[in-house]
Amino acid sequence: MVWLVLILMMAWNLYRRKFWWAAIHGLMVFGLSLFGSTPLPGWLLAGLEKPYVNACWADAREADAIIVLGGYLTDGQKKEPAGFDVSQHFDRLLAGIEIVRRSKAKCLVLGGGSIPQEGKFVSEYDLIKPWLDQAGLGDTAIKHLGICANTNEEARRVKVLMNNNNWETVCLVTSAWHMRRARGAFESAGVQVIPVACDFTGFYRAPDSGLLEHFTLLPQSGRLNMMRIYLHEQVGWLYYRSRGWIKPGK
Description:
By secondary structure, this protein is of the alpha/beta class. It contains eight helices and nine strands. The strands form three sheets. It has a five-stranded parallel beta sheet with strand order 7-4-1-8-9, sandwiched between helices. The protein has a two-stranded antiparallel sheet with strand order 2-3. A two-stranded antiparallel sheet has the order 5-6.
């Protein structure tokens, strides 16, 4: 709707010979089309994910613990029979559980995501714990990081856990597009990780697919969301570097 309105406003300003305003609206139409109708956002996001596409889960078998970063739940839990509502990043938790089932790791550590509830924040762990108790994880110990403000805080709390439990190796599970920044923060905090990415979101061209198959006439909200994620990660990387949370060379 915004795209169509902008086109109409551009046409109306051209008709009234207000070329400056027509150019402004034309640039907005171009921007929405570029990021909403072309595969550019998906390709940019795939560039962040590509180093982790072929990460082997077998490497996680010897890890002392599996770290799953937060962000896999959203609000609306009161309406759900399970008592929680999953976000588009729930793959993080599913991947962590699957690695625990396949590996020798005896500890699953859940990240510090939180959900607003009745004027306060509740940790994702508190909401998901009843479901995890029925997930068939056997004697796997489940720990959580409490509520954390960001990935850097999660990394520093994991470092404390490593020191307290004499862990040598941990497996880091998060969305593929977030892995670069998360890994940088963890290793800068002194935590060496085995990265296992999931929640792949970018566009990957199949060998037999045509280029035009990835273009659409109308802008798609999903592609605009990909662009939002990409910009969030790039700005987040620069912010972490400026704060010293990711050291040079990481």
